[in-house]
Automatic annotation (TrEMBL):
InterPro entries in the cross-refs: ABA4-like
Membrane spanning stretches: 6-24, 33-51, 77-97, 109-131
Keywords, alphabetical: Membrane, Transmembrane, Transmembrane helix
A Pfam family reported for this protein in Swiss-Prot or TrEMBL: ABA4-like
Name the record gives this protein: DUF4281 domain-containing protein
Range of residues in the leader sequence: none
Amino acid sequence: MNASSIFQFGNSFILLGWILLIFAPNWKLTQTIILNGILILFSVIYSYLILKDIGDFKMDSFSTLANVKQLFQNDNAVAAGWFHYLTFDLFVGTYIVRKAKELNISRWWATLALPFTFMFGPMGYLIFVIIKTIKTLNSNANNQ
């Protein structure tokens, strides 16, 4: 399987996790399927892509912007980088759903952060932190 095919697979398959988080966040198997299924599979694929070209890796590959640009001239490195994003963004989305349940944040408010987490990673997490902060402040104000 080449890097392009792996990339296409990742883009399609990751949607399963996001669909579960958005439409079935309270289903008893959602967290298990994502954490012990999808994320493990993506971690294996990521490891394969990295280890496949490990001989070309240089210790200073991440030391400058120019070196990172050079590193990502390789299709396998780009696909690995993409799997890195997909995996960690879904992990953060899973954390958001779990934390929202724990803090009794409305499913709808938590779901607001998920598309941003899927598309823009850290921005979605920031939105959730803002929602969580507002919820905490409101809860504290109501308890006084």
